[in-house]
Specification:
The chain contains 1 helix and 4 strands; from the N terminus they run αββββ. By secondary structure, it is mainly β. A 4-stranded antiparallel β-sheet has the order 1-2-3-4. The longest helix has 5 residues. It is extended, with a radius of gyration of 16 Å.
Length: 65
Amino acid sequence: MPALLTVDALEVLATAPAWALQEMVLDRYGGHVVVFDADMDTVPVFTRLGQWGGVAEDLYAIGEA
């Protein structure tokens, strides 16, 4: 039988440092949300609902969806 995890409450223990948010940019292209990070050569892509879409070699490889 697989393990079952039940979450009763979530608590924020600390907020993200401001510098972590300044180095990344989230932007939306059609049905995609992309993460631009100066330290990465590729572009992580998610759907607008937050599902993982993969990694694009560049912004122009994302296309429309």
